[in-house]
């Protein structure tokens, strides 16, 4: 196996890091969404990284995309903003690109790659979280299209999105049949709820999205009618990979901060890094980063080969999220009282990190999946 | 119009002292401004920009960056024999490279490099190519395919000069941060061929260049930190205004301030 990066990948990575450091680490936007930053990312060309050139994308491999997004997490201190971009690319734009009909691709992709339209995915409901298939949102078919009714909860990018990938029940048989739709914010009957205050990731606005007799043209079915469950698994696979790739970069950034801190701060006449209780924490961070990277390369390779990575992405999500939280928690301990203050970034990093054991399927659900999939291996 | 921009790759730590960049080499800040001025012309007039650089294997990315920023072609004078060149040798190799490129209207150089600090390449190159040269250029005011008009700034006055083409102009200022290069431009630049010429391609003997022919050697370059003395103006707004007024009028008595 060849683990070396091409000259092109190296240059993309370096340019991405320089671009982010020069443009995106603005403290005033750490806790709120910035349309100006979104525009800059769009102009930089990051949104269409794996999308075909006919839609304004770069047509790069999934491995190159992973390398770039790991670098993105490393350089971008605004984890909420990283979340906005990933939601747009991987579980909205990417689904249209891979599973949408020609009409949908032609209608939406150029606008999404150029950043003129922001995407979001709407699966979760008040009563349907981990048990997503128990959703109540329903779409009734008529001659020209579908009438959608239902409420979707905790929709990341909800307040800023123009295009929603919405999952709804289209047949009340047992088991229920689900279909995915591309729904524009401007469609009649779409209402965006109030922004939901969160513990972290505040640069990524979240809200409820309400569909009240929302009329969807029949062309806006994403994938096949009544095949939404399959699309849902595809969507989660992409989400569990690319939402978590940047976390490896964040872990690297935090590890470097910790490493510098323990090498410069003295207590009892010695640098605190000489205490194994602290140096071992940093060693554990390094191990987690390296192990996560190995998994990242494998999944990117699988996706570039056109293969499924359902179990692998569950393992990846579980491993990266647990270690991302542990890294932030350990960093807080290493920085002591300073880490707990608002002056340092560590407390915010921890607040941002904590959500990752919940979103994209809770870690408990990942363990269920991994165990269930053993029978297929 | 055809413009040739001479570019040198310099180590990033000489440019960004407190801010670590990802690349080992970056475009010399004086040359970056020269390139930016060429791109400004291209934005208003049909022209092509060729970047030319002499340097080792590790500077390829700097030329890719030049292409991504807006250069149409990149020429890389790359030969181990060129190592250790001083300005006499550098101008010789560059002049050979430029002659091989062919016809041109304008050559743009930066005043100096942050690693060599000699400021002799622009002038020396013009001499070797036997074309007129203007240094201390602040701005290109106007241009046609026959001449350009430039503003030249000195400490106490400025001049507006008209010069017939082909000519060489040397920009006096520098630019630290390049415009953001989009990933798409970067990808297109990576697909472009960079023309690589060795001493053989330029048809001269290896012992005519490099360290062997260099008349000078830069032993070391260290940044000098110049600390200017400051004075805090205290008091209320009215008192501060009086002091500032005195400063502007040159009547401020520092010894009796306080």
From TrEMBL, chain A:
Its BP terms in the Gene Ontology are:
branched-chain amino acid catabolic process
Q: Which residues form the signal peptide?
A: none
- The segment(s) forming the Acyl-CoA oxidase/dehydrogenase middle domain are 120-214
Q: In which pathway does it act?
A: Amino-acid degradation; L-valine degradation
Against Gene3D superfamilies, the record matches this protein to: Acyl-CoA dehydrogenase/oxidase, N-terminal domain, Butyryl-CoA Dehydrogenase, subunit A, domain 2, Butyryl-CoA Dehydrogenase, subunit A, domain 3
One short Pfam family name for this protein? Answer: Acyl-CoA_dh_M
| Record's keyword terms, sorted | Branched-chain amino acid catabolism, FAD, Flavoprotein, Oxidoreductase
| Occurrences of domain Acyl-CoA dehydrogenase/oxidase C-terminal (ranges) | 227-373
Which InterPro entries does the entry mention? Acyl-CoA_DH_CS (IPR006089), Acyl-CoA_Oxase/DH_mid-dom (IPR006091), Acyl-CoA_Oxase/DH_mid-dom_sf (IPR046373), AcylCo_DH-like_C (IPR036250), AcylCo_DH/oxidase_C (IPR009075), AcylCoA_DH/ox_N (IPR013786), AcylCoA_DH/ox_N_sf (IPR037069), AcylCoA_DH/oxidase_NM_dom_sf (IPR009100)
Instruction: Identify the domain of life.
Output: Bacteria
Positions the record marks as coiled coil are: none
Which cofactors, by name? FAD
Family of this protein: Belongs to the acyl-CoA dehydrogenase family.
Query: Which protein are we looking at?
Result: Acyl-CoA dehydrogenase
Q: Which organism is it from?
A: Lacrimispora algidixylanolytica
UniProtKB/TrEMBL annotation, chain B:
- A Pfam family of the record is ETF
Show the GO MF annotations. electron transfer activity
- Please list the residue ranges annotated as the Electron transfer flavoprotein alpha/beta-subunit N-terminal domain: 17-206
Which InterPro entries does this entry report, sorted A to Z? Answer: ETF_a/b_N, ETF_b, ETF_beta_N, Rossmann-like_a/b/a_fold
SMART domains for this protein = ETF
What is this protein's record name?
Answer: Electron transfer flavoprotein small subunit
Q: Report the source organism.
A: Lacrimispora algidixylanolytica
């Amino acid at each position: 196996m060849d683990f070396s990066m091409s000259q092109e990948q190296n240059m993309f990575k370096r340019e991405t890091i320089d671009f982010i450091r020069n443009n995106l680490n603005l403290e005033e936007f750490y806790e709120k969404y910035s349309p100006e930053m979104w525009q800059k990312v769009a102009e930089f060309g990051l949104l269409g990284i794996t999308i075909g050139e006919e839609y304004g994308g770069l047509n790069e491999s999934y491995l190159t995309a992973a390398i770039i997004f790991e670098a993105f997490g490393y350089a971008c201190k605004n984890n909420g903003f990283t979340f906005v971009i990933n939601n747009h690319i991987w579980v909205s734009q990417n689904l249209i690109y891979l599973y949408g009909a020609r009409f949908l691709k032609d209608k939406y992709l150029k606008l999404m790659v150029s950043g003129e339209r922001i995407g979001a995915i709407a699966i979760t409901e008040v009563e349907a979280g981990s048990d997503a298939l128990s959703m109540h949102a329903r779409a009734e078919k008529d001659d020209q299209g579908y009438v959608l009714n239902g409420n979707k909860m905790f929709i990341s990018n909800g307040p800023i999105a123009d295009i929603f990938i919405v999952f709804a029940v289209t047949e009340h048989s047992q088991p229920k049949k689900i279909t995915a739709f591309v729904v524009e914010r401007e469609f009649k009957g779409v209402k965006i709820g109030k922004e939901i205050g969160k513990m972290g990731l505040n640069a990524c606005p979240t809200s409820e999205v309400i569909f009240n007799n929302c009329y969807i043209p029949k062309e806006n079915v994403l994938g096949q009618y009544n095949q939404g469950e399959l699309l849902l698994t595809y969507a989660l696979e992409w989400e569990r990979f690319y939402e978590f790739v940047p976390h490896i970069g964040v872990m690297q950034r935090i590890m470097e901060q910790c490493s510098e801190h323990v090498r410069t701060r003295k207590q009892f006449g010695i640098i605190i890094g000489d205490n194994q209780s602290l140096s071992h924490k940093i060693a554990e961070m390094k191990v987690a980063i390296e192990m996560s990277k190995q998994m990242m390369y494998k999944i990117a390779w699988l996706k570039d080969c056109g293969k499924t990575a359902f179990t692998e992405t569950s393992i990846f999500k579980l491993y990266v999220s647990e270690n991302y939280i542990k890294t932030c928690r350990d960093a807080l301990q290493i920085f002591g009282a300073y880490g707990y203050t608002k002056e340092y970034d560590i407390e915010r990093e921890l607040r941002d990190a904590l959500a990752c054991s919940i979103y994209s399927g809770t870690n408990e659900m990942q363990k269920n999946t991994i165990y269930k999939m053993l029978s297929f291996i | 119009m055809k413009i040739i921009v001479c570019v040198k790759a310099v180590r990033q730590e000489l440019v960004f002292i407190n801010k670590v960049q990802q690349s080992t080499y970056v475009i010399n800040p004086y040359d970056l401004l020269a390139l930016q001025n060429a791109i400004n012309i291209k934005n208003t007039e049909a022209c092509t920009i060729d970047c030319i650089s002499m340097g080792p294997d590790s500077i390829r990315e700097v030329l890719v960056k030049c292409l991504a920023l807006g250069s149409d072609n990149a020429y890389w004078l790359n030969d181990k024999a060129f190592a250790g060149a001083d300005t006499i040798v550098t101008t010789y190799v560059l002049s050979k490279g430029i002659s091989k490129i062919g016809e041109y209207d304008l050559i743009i150089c930066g005043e100096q490099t942050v690693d060599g600090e000699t400021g002799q390449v622009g002038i020396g190159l013009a001499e070797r190519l036997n074309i007129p040269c203007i240094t201390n250029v602040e701005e290109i005011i106007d241009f046609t395919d026959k001449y350009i008009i430039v503003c030249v700034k000195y400490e106490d006055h400025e001049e507006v000069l008209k010069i017939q083409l082909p000519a060489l102009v040397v920009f006096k200022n520098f630019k630290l941060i390049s415009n953001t290069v989009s990933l798409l431009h970067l990808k297109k630049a990576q697909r472009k061929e960079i023309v690589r010429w060795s001493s053989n391609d330029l048809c001269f003997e290896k012992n005519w260049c490099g360290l062997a022919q260099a008349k000078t050697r830069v032993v070391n370059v260290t940044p000098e930190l110049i600390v200017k003395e400051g004075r805090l103006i205290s008091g209320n707004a009215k008192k501060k205004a009086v002091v500032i007024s005195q400063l502007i009028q040159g009547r401020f008595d520092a010894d009796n301030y306080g």
